[in-house]
Amino acid sequence: MFKASRILLSASVSVILAFAAPSQFPFSLPAAAQESGLTAETIAANGSPKASAALQLMLDGEEEKAFQVLQEAESEATKKEALPADVPYFMAAFDKQHDHFDKAASHLLLSRKLYAQGKNLDDHQKMLMTKRLADCYYGGDKIKEAMNEYSIALVDAEHDPDGALSVPEILESMIACEVKLKKFEDAEKHSNLLVDMCRQRAQSHTIYDFLTYAWALFQKADLYRAWDQKDKVNQVRMELRPLLINLVESRMTAEAQNAIPDYHTMVAQVRGQYVRAIKPTTPPELAWAASDFRVKTLPIVAWQNKTPGPPIASIICIHGLGLENQSFRHFAAELNKRGYMVYAQDVRGFGSWTQTKGEENLNYNQTLIDIRNLAEVILQRNPGVPVYVLGESMGGAIAIRAGAQLGDIINGVISSVPSAERFQAKKMSLQTAMHFLVDRHKAFNIGNEVANLATKNADARAAWKEDPKAKMGMTPIELMKFAVFMRTTKPQASKITKLPVLMVQGLQDQLVKPQGTFDLFDAVKSTDKTFLTIGNAEHLIFENKSPDPILMDSLDSWLRHHCIKETAGK
Fold it and tell me: Sign of the C-alpha dihedral, residues 396, 331, 215, 279?
């Protein structure tokens, strides 16, 4: 079993790494051009006139015009002359970025055919195109077709001197396909290959390789869960746990020492490494490098208390719909000053989980298991220190379930705006039903509407919409799961019979109806329950840049009171 050792922190990759998956195409293409090591003029010179013109428009921020140029080239080719192979290749990048996976696959197939006629793709470029076609099939839920293309891409990547970056990406994708197809023996074989490869690379003791290794183990554990191999799940957990602890604590220490640059700086540094490794030389290759690039992060982050000695309590924070663990960083800073250790965890299907193939699906039950696992680790690291679960909105409903199901390991629950009773609920239900009829697996953007209802603060809205880890789109199936989960919170609240509960609601909330939260509070059977109403608070009470001072004082007082009771009880 791998023994976690001290991690060497590099500023450029201190908490993130680059893998190929959807990102914010228009935002990152200019940066990708700058970081590729080639000038935009050099790359444009390697393309057809239309592809080069489209690239320049993209670099100027004119995405719509760029796509129109490519469409015109496609239309003209059917009438006058042969279509340049780089035009459909470029269009495929646009299609995939906007989740038009079938169109993207069609354009890639056409481009591959045209390039084959001209024999002007080298082996590395062919491998990347095959992998990208597989990604489009995967995104369109055509798993068998994706698996066939990934299999070809893996063989090509293994024989490609420049394919080292792509091999683990392809293996990860193949494992996801095989689990979906219930080919568990094949998935186990490829998972063993991926974990062995990552374990070997982790001997370098760099954060990049440790993160890759951790995510390979996460995927392996979930393979065994799907296969119902409980003993093997536990074996993987034994290897993963010390590694994850090491990563979380190393990141926490580096942040406390101001050794981590701001997020956008880190993204730029790692994106540069990724783009240079991909070696784009033509307009569509650059477009794909920008589209492929993504960020992998830790599913758990922690912030150390700033007071001497052990923390007063440890708080596990669970985010709201569409958000991610970093949304608690400002709130955590306030609690740290007051003597609390704070952890924040990504809900399965959000944040860091969306960046690994096969891990992107919403899973509330596994999230509760994750909370239990984290609580166990916290108690091992700080025995005798109480553990509380705090959640907001969707996270508030999860916190209530934690109170109902994990009362043997946690000491209390703080639940903010957890109700399913929503303003404009009928409108959202109608939108979901319409999209379900068109394609139940295709995500549609709900983030803008949710952000607009959650806050009137323009800066807060912009920060939410621009967060590359925020999940702005959800499929109809995910939204239906979310609705059912939220609607079944009340019976869970009634199962909390002893744990202390603090419930919070803002009266300026334009997303959740306050009465729904009042009703959940009434459903809690524990007599040790407190309701805090904040007259001027909107939907996001804990997950904002400036937590209300009165709220923080009240929360601090409530926590200290119950921590004293816990100590006296022992």
Answer: positive
Output the pTM of the full model.
0.89
Instruction: Give tens-digit pLDDT for 374-391.
Output: 999 999 999 999 999 999
Q: Which two tokens stand for residue 532?
A: 């805090």
In the predicted model, what is the mean pLDDT of residues 434-439? Answer: 54
Q: Which residues pair with 512 in a beta bridge?
A: 422
**Under 8 Å between Cβ of 473 and 381:** no
Q: What's the CA gap between 208 and 165, in Å, rounded?
A: 12
Cα distance between residue 85 and residue 114, in whole Å: 5
pLDDT digits (tens, 9 = 90+) for 55-84: 888 888 888 899 999 999 988 876 556 899
Q: How far is it, in rounded angstroms, from Cα 169 to Cα 164?
A: 10
Q: How far apart are CA 332 and CA 304, in angstroms?
A: 9
φ, ψ (nearest 5 deg) of residue 487: -65, -20
- Indicate the angle between helix axes 86-97 and 63-77, nearest 10 degrees: 140
CA nearest to 399, candidates 540, 470, 528, 504: 504
d(CA 533, CA 547): 14
Phi, psi for residue 517 in degrees, rounded to 5: -70, -40
* Tokens of residue 402, six digits: 């934690």
Single out the residue of 199, 203, 145, 130 nearest to residue 177, CA to CA: 145
Q: Where are the domains of the chain?
A: 11-296, 300-420+487-569
Q: Are 77 and 83 in contact (CB under 8 A)?
A: yes
Per-residue pLDDT at 455: 72
How many Å apart are CA 320 and CA 398, to the nearest integer? 10
Q: What is the DSSP string of 55-67?
A: HHHHHTT-HHHHH
Query: CA 455, CA 540: separation in Å to the nearest integer?
Result: 7
Place of tokens 């991909």: 278
Query: Taking residues 474-489, what's their average pLDDT?
Result: 89
Comparing C-alpha atoms, which of 443, 247, 469 is closest to residue 353?
A: 469
In three-state secondary structure terms, 503 is strand
CA distances from 135 to 150, 155, 195 (A): 8, 16, 21
Mention every residue, 6+ apart, whose C-beta is less than 8 A from residue 170.
131, 134, 150, 153, 154, 157
CB within 8 Å of 215: residues ≥ 6 apart: 172, 296, 356
Residue 399 in tokens: 């916190």
pLDDT band at 260 (very low <50, low <70, confident <90, very high): confident
Measured between alpha carbons, how far is 397 from 400 in angstroms, rounded to an integer? 5
Q: Which of 205, 165, 471, 173 is nearest to 323 (CA)?
A: 471
With H, G, I as helix, E, B as strand and everything else as coil, classify residue 548.
coil
What are the residues whose beta carbons fall under 8 Å from the beta carbon of 284, sequence distance 6 or more? 47, 51, 86, 89, 90, 92, 93, 111
d(CA 241, CA 244): 5
300-420+487-569 folds as Rossmann fold (3.40.50)
Dihedral over Cα of 442, 101, 24, 167: its sign: positive
Q: What is the DSSP letter of 445?
A: E
Region 11-296: CATH code: 1.25.40.10
Q: Where are the alpha helices (DSSP H) in 78-100?
A: 86-97
Q: Which whole number is the average pLDDT over 194-214?
A: 89
